[in-house]
Structure formats: structure tokens, C-alpha cells
Specification:
The chain is of the alpha+beta class. The protein is built from 20 helices and 13 strands. The radius of gyration is 60 Å and the shape is rod-shaped.
């Protein structure tokens, strides 16, 4: 195979079957070519016509005939000779009778050879040749495919109107080829170039149809120089991003540099700016910078949330991210989350805790306490609340934005918290010890039920009467000092309270209100006793309700209320903070003996209430009025004597002659609690329990009691029961 390129369009043709010097026309662009002719030096195929290949633009009729006779020229391979006859309009006259080749036009025009015939699919060239010739894309079909050439044609295609090739057709075909070449260069520039014999550089044949362009050489990909982290950060410094996608471009460029140290440092810088702007919640950025996420949301089934640990979780959840320098804050938040999870489990599994939660919610909506900051300690069956104006919990620190202020507050709170925990530890021991002793003394004799049992210990009541489904907790509210206690009454409740009141029980709310006496040794004994005293009032109130179908008892200020509180409230705190119930109320005993000496020094004597009168009083005002009128004494002194003798009478009834009256006392207590019997007045209940039928019975018990005070209590040495309570925080 011998390939030859068109000098005009570059199409390649197999000319191995053509003789040297034989002319043929390019089926792609129409150029007249000479077989086996060397390409002119310095010219690119397809750039112009070879010498002698130009056509005359106009011909005279009859021109182009060969002189002389002879056989017409035949194509190699047995093609039919051109026939004679009159030429068609616009065509050339074929050569007649001569043996020479057909010439174009006449003098000065070179002979035109046959048009190149491509090899058919069957392997036989048009005109009978068995050799394959490449077809020219966009060229004409060979005559053999259409049948015999029409009269006046030389097997080479139609002539133009002036006798030459159809110029419009040739120009259109050339333009089409040129367009295809351009498109292939643009879209398929990876074709390999061919060498001189038509074989491409990869060793594959480059021959094909005559209209195929030569394969092009693939241009080597130009690798742009790789950018550095310094380049990127230089651009970042001058073109600061503001939008999310702008930040992402810089981030992706830096990430593409891999483990480059400069890229890592640059990425840190970009991420730090990113989370201050549109990337505040971007997890990838936060984690790269060492932040820890707090994703824990408060469970929906926790309805009441005014707890330090729950509020801390809420703050941490809203904050969401904790930086590398906030390790302690993150640990505090996680501690709060664990407490919150335990809190939720208790709400589901512990009905006592659920009851405590309910009472907390009640306090939170109380018009007097809702604005207070207070901490709580659950000491079954008590909820102990402690309020202070200047104390923050460790969890409150999470709400402070300034880190330096947070660190300073943390040190302050650590010190205060230690003292605060000591107070709550002691209060929990006092009130739980009281509840245990009260049950020991009266559970069976008074038919008492656990207040924290289902329905407050009384599931036997009818549906309309049942109350406190999850238990009946009792609230103890303690102010941190007397100033806070007084401000609560004067500024919050806006009510007056006597200056000497150190605590009280309120039948209206069912709460005990106290203030902390501090660590002063002289006040420790008094504080412990007053806690138990007021707690006893509270137990009497709630067990009365439990026994009375949860109806509230008629409030009163009688001897029994104060007497039982002073009797049970006579305690000593042991080193392990447990209580020893001694019955001898040292402050009341001392007060009685001191009052007797004072009156004796004034030429008077210590006055004793008659028993029938003592058990009939229903208010302190009544006591003071009767004492002032009967004895002519100061009302304050009279009230003090009432407290002293109420304790002394209770102590007498439980201890006189090895408990002679103890069983009757317990019967009286039962009648007081069971108000449905109608014994709302103490004197009636007392007469029923102690079998008082006439004045002689009153006189007998009155004489025994007065002698007991004069002959025994007035001579009793209070120092026998003197002791020093353990300091807060000592051995438990």
C-alpha cells in the first residue's frame, strides 16, 4: 500500500494501483493530483494546488479535444474507455479516436486524469480493481456503485457549467471537511499523529476513508505549579471571606495540601474565624480546634426543672460547644447530665422522689418563694430547703460568660459549698432522727402509717378521700441567718413577727420555718432543740390529717402542742450526729429555776397553773391575759412560764412513778389526732383519756403535778445534761 496525501486538504489515498504520473481528482476537495508525485518542498498538504493543476475559469465550446487518433487512455485495472459523442451542456468533449489521454480545455491546460475511485466494501475497487482505495469523506460515489456513467462523463463525476467540476459542490464539501477537522481538533485532540507512511506513532494504521483527516498529536498536559499554604493564607489575609461558600473554598484548598504543617496551621486560623461567623455550628471546624460538643437535651418527661443540675444541663445544651480551655466547665456539665439522668430514673422508679419533685414544683410557684434562689436536700420524708442571698451553686457558673470571673467564682463557691453541705448534712440527720423516734414511740399505739407510703399511707380511704398518691413529703425551710429570716417576713410576706421568734411551724402551709444559728457553740444546743421542737409540731399536724381523712385540724395554741414539742425536742446530738432523746428540756428547766429565784428575790413565788386551767387554754393571748389578771405578772413572763409548765406536765405524765400516767397520756394523744370523735378542745379530750369525773379527780392530779415541780424539777441539776454538740463536718 502506498498512501499519498492531497496537497490541498490533506486527505490520504492509496495510489499503489496508479501509474507514475497518472492524474486523479481528490474526492474530498476536488483537487487534481498526480499519482506518485513528491509533495513540493516547504508546502503543507492542502495549502494550495500543485503546479499545472489549476483549471481555466472559462472554456470555449469544443475545446479540450485531443488531436490525432488512437485509443483512448484506460485506467489501470480495466476501466471502460470514455465514449465519444456530443458533450452535454457545460461538460467536456471526450477524447475521440485517438490514443492519447484526455486533456482539459486546450493549449496550456494539463490533462485531467480520472477521479479517484474508493475501494468498495467487498474489497473490489470501482472499475473492476480488486485493490482497496481509501474513500474520500464527503466525495462522490464511484460510478460502479451507481451503474454505468452517463453519456458524456468520463467516469469522473459531473462537470460544472463551464465544463469543470461543480464548484459549489466542491466548496461545500471542503467546508464540511474543514468544520469536521476543527471539531475533531477541539474535541478529540488526543489522536496520535501519523508518520510519512500513514502509520500512527503508536504503531496502528492511520489509513481509512479518503475523507478522514490525519490524526493529531496530543498536546502534553501542562501542570500548573502547586500552590503553597503561604500563597493561600496570603490571599486569605487580603480577601477575607464573609460567606459560607467563601470559607469553604479556602478550607478545601488548605485540606488539599495534606499534612503540610503550614496548611494545618492555616486551617486552624481559618476555622477559628469560621466558627465566629457563618460556621458557628460546623462540627468539623469545632472538633479540629479541640472543642467538645454537649448534645444532651433535658428529657421531655422532666416537667419541673428548677434544680441546679437540670438548669446546668439547659445552659450547657444552649452553649453546645466547650473549648480546649473549658475542660473544667465541660466536666461540670457532664456531671450535671449524669445527675439529670439519675433524676429522671428516680421520677420513673421511686414514688417518694416523685412526691418530692411535686412539692418542689409547688414551692416554685409559691408567691413568696418563687423568686428565691434555694438549694434542696431530699432526706426522706423531708425536703429541706436552704436559701441564701449570696450563694451560687457550681452549676450556676456555666451561665457566667467571662472566663476569669468564672474561675474566681469557682474558688469562692468551693469554700462556701463545703460549709453549705455541712449544714444540710446536719439538718438531714436531725429531722430523719426525729421521724424515726416519733414512729418508735407512737406508730402502733396511735396507728400511724408511713407518710411517704402510697396515698400518704392511707390507700384504704375511698377514692374521693385519697390524697398524696406518691407520698406526703414535709418541707423544712431554713434561712442562712436571722437577717434573711426577718427580711423574708418584713419584705416578702410583709408581716410582723416577734423579734424573739427563732422558728415556727405554719398550719397554713404545713412548712417549718427556721434560721441557722451558725457554728457558735453557745447557740448549737438551742438550735438543735428548736429544730426538733418545730419538727414535732409538723409531725403532729400531718399525722392528724392522716388520721382525719386528710382534713386540716383546727389550729390552736394549747399546752399539749407545746408540751409534746418540748418533751420530744429535748435531745443530745451524738458524735455521729444521731440524736439521743432525753426528755429533760434543759433550756426550759433552767428557765423555770431562774424565774423562781427571780420571783423569790422580789418577795414573790413561782406561780403554777392549775391543771384544769392549763389544759383548757387555746391561745397564747388567753394564757397571757389570765396570768396577768390572776397573778399580776408581766405577760411575757407568764407566757414563758406556760411553755415551761407545758413541758413539765408532759414530762410528768410520761415519767411520774415509773410511768403511772403514760398509757393515759397515749390515749389522750390518740384522741387529739382523731378529731372525728369531736374532741377538738383539749380539756374534753383530757377528761376522756384521764377519766376525770369530778373536782376531786382534778384535785388529785393537780396536787401530784405541783409537788413534782416543787420537790423534783426545781432541785434537778441542769448541768447533768450539759454537753457540747459535735461541730459541723465532724465524724458522721
Amino acid at each position: 500500500m502506498k498512501l499519498q496525501a492531497c496537497t490541498k486538504c490533506g486527505a490520504q489515498f492509496d495510489v499503489s494501483e496508479f501509474s507514475v504520473g497518472q492524474q486523479f481528482s481528490c474526492g474530498s476537495c476536488g483537487e487534481v493530483l498526480t499519482a506518485h508525485a513528491a509533495a513540493p518542498s516547504g508546502r503543507t498538504p492542502g495549502a494550495g494546488r500543485t503546479p499545472g493543476a489549476s483549471r481555466s475559469k472559462s472554456r470555449q465550446p469544443g475545446s479540450g479535444r485531443a488531436s490525432g487518433g488512437g485509443a483512448p487512455a484506460r485506467r489501470k485495472g480495466g476501466g471502460a474507455p470514455a465514449r465519444g459523442g456530443a458533450p452535454k451542456r457545460g461538460g467536456r468533449a471526450p477524447a475521440r479516436g485517438g490514443g492519447g489521454k484526455a486533456v482539459e480545455g486546450g493549449p496550456g491546460h494539463p490533462s485531467r486524469g480520472p477521479q479517484y475511485q474508493p475501494v468498495q466494501r467487498g474489497g473490489q475497487a470501482a472499475g473492476g480493481s480488486t485493490k482497496r482505495a481509501p474513500s474520500a469523506r464527503g466525495g462522490r460515489r464511484a460510478t460502479a456503485r451507481r451503474g454505468a456513467a452517463p453519456e458524456g462523463e468520463d467516469g469522473g463525476g459531473r462537470r460544472g457549467p463551464q465544463g469543470g467540476p461543480n464548484k459549489a459542490l466542491l466548496i461545500g464539501a471542503g467546508a464540511a471537511v474543514l468544520l469536521i477537522v476543527v471539531m475533531l481538533v477541539v474535541l478529540g485532540g488526543d489522536k496520535k499523529p501519523t508518520d510519512g507512511d500513514g502509520t500512527n506513532m503508536a504503531g496502528t494504521s492511520g489509513s481509512g476513508s479518503g475523507g478522514n483527516r490525519a490524526n493529531t498529536v496530543k498536546e502534553p498536559e501542562v501542570q500548573e505549579p502547586e500552590e503553597s499554604a503561604q500563597d493561600i493564607m496570603g490571599e486569605y489575609g487580603t480577601q477575607r471571606p464573609t460567606m459560607l461558600k467563601q470559607y469553604k473554598r479556602f478550607i478545601n484548598r488548605l485540606k488539599a495540601l495534606g499534612d503540610d504543617p503550614g496548611a494545618k496551621e492555616g486551617l486552624r486560623t481559618v476555622y477559628e474565624d469560621f466558627i465566629k461567623g457563618p460556621g458557628r455550628d460546623d462540627k468539623e471546624a469545632r472538633k479540629y480546634l479541640g472543642y467538645k460538643e454537649f448534645p444532651h437535651e433535658i428529657p421531655e418527661d422532666i416537667s419541673f426543672r428548677k434544680y441546679p443540675h437540670i438548669e446546668a444541663v439547659e445552659i450547657a445544651y444552649n452553649k453546645q460547644w466547650f473549648g480546649p480551655d473549658e475542660k473544667e466547665d465541660y466536666e461540670t456539665a457532664m456531671k450535671a447530665w449524669k445527675e439529670t439522668q439519675a433524676h429522671r430514673d428516680k421520677l420513673i422508679n421511686d414514688h417518694r422522689f416523685l412526691a418530692a419533685d411535686s412539692i418542689r414544683a409547688l414551692i416554685a410557684h409559691d408567691k413568696h418563694f418563687k423568686d428565691y434562689y434555694y438549694a434542696t436536700r431530699w432526706a426522706d420524708p423531708y425536703l429541706i430547703c436552704y436559701s441564701s442571698k449570696d450563694r451560687l451553686s457550681e452549676y450556676d457558673l456555666l451561665s457566667i460568660e467571662d472566663k476569669a470571673e468564672r474561675a474566681l467564682k469557682r474558688k469562692e463557691i468551693a469554700k462556701k459549698k463545703a460549709e453549705f453541705e455541712k449544714v444540710l448534712d446536719e439538718k438531714a440527720a436531725i429531722f430523719q432522727g426525729l421521724y424515726k423516734e416519733f414512729h418508735r414511740l407512737y406508730e402502733k399505739k396511735l396507728n400511724l402509717k408511713p407518710l411517704m407510703g402510697k396515698y400518704g399511707g392511707r390507700p384504704d380511704y375511698k377514692l374521693g378521700v385519697r390524697s398524696f398518691e406518691y407520698g406526703c413529703p414535709m418541707v423544712i425551710w431554713i434561712f442562712d441567718n436571722k437577717t434573711s429570716f426577718n427580711e423574708y417576713h418584713s419584705k416578702v410576706k410583709q408581716e410582723l413577727i416577734p423579734h424573739n421568734v427563732a422558728g415556727y411551724f405554719s398550719p397554713k402551709t404545713g412548712f417549718v420555718y427556721l434560721y441557722d444559728e451558725g457554728d457558735n457553740p453557745s447557740g448549737r444546743v438551742f438550735e438543735i432543740n428548736k429544730n426538733v421542737h418545730e419538727g414535732t409540731h409538723q409531725l403532729e399536724f400531718w399525722f392528724t390529717r392522716q388520721r382525719n381523712r386528710w382534713a386540716k385540724p383546727i389550729p390552736g395554741q394549747d399546752w399539749f402542742g407545746e408540751g409534746i414539742a418540748e418533751f420530744i425536742g429535748a435531745v443530745q446530738m451524738q458524735p455521729d450526729r444521731s440524736l439521743k432523746f432525753i426528755g429533760v428540756n434543759v433550756p426550759r428547766l433552767k428557765g423555770m429555776q431562774q424565774a423562781a429565784k427571780m420571783l423569790e428575790g422580789q418577795g414573790n413565788e413561782y406561780k403554777l397553773f392549775p391543771v384544769d386551767k392549763l389544759v383548757s387554754f387555746t391561745s397564747y393571748a388567753e394564757v397571757q391575759q389570765w396570768g396577768s389578771t390572776t397573778w399580776g405578772l408581766n405577760p411575757g413572763l407568764v407566757l414563758g412560764m406556760f411553755y415551761q409548765q407545758s413541758w413539765a406536765f408532759t414530762y410528768f405524765l410520761n415519767n411520774y412513778k415509773n410511768g403511772r400516767y403514760k398509757e393515759r397520756f397515749e390515749r389522750f394523744f390518740d384522741l387529739v389526732l382523731h378529731r372525728e370523735t369531736g374532741f377538738s378542745e383539749g380539756s374534753k379530750a383530757f377528761k376522756e383519756a384521764f377519766r376525770i369525773r369530778d373536782e376531786d379527780d382534778w384535785e388529785d392530779i393537780n396536787e401530784e403535778f405541783h409537788e413534782y415541780i416543787k420537790d423534783y424539777l426545781m432541785d434537778l441539776k441542769p448541768s447533768k445534761w450539759d454537753y457540747t454538740p459535735p461541730k459541723r463536718g465532724e465524724s458522721k
